[in-house]
Amino acid sequence: xxxxxxxxxSAEETIAFGAELAAHLRPPALVLLYGELGAGKTTLAKxxxxxxxxxxxxxxxxxxxxxxHAFGNHGLVYHVDLYRISGRHDLDSIGxxxxxxxxxxxxxxxxxKLALRTDWPVIEIRLESSGADDRRRIRVRDExxxxxxxxxxxxxx
Length: 157
Ligand code: ADP
Ligand code: MG
Fold this sequence. Notes:
By secondary structure, the protein is α/β, with parallel strands linked by helices. It has helices at 11-22, 41-51, and strands at 3-8, 29-34, 68-71, 76-81, 104-109, 122-129, 136-141.
């Protein structure tokens, strides 16, 4: 299904949703995460990375200052945060082109800062906070069918 959405009501639910996505995710895949500060990008990334079996939940932190965290047990998983990057750059100019050298799952926070040219399947995920509470609207766009075999309930029902 190319596009679907989910609402979560807590960080735990967002982590669980990430694990659900991870179960259908195989390298190579580029997961682009969009959303304001505090929207839940890192939280969802934690669910995906731990769901992939690449790291334990408590060992996954935001790569805000390091730009990229690499996890390696069951295939390569990279967690990138472009928050501190100014302007639009490609992975090449940030020094991350090596990440595309072999099939991996690459998660990118602040993906709007990426000027992307790739033949990898791309999954776009947009997170929105409704305001003061813990609800998050999470929209997933999987144009390339990278979420293998993910069956979704019909929308708007
Ligand atoms: P981002 O990476 O987008 O800046 P984080 O994942 O670091 O966001 O932070 C999200 C914050 O919002 C965390 O403190 C988390 O506990 C809280 N939160 C509350 N409700 C949710 C939810 N439904 N989904 C994700 N995070 C939530
Ligand atoms: Mg973050």
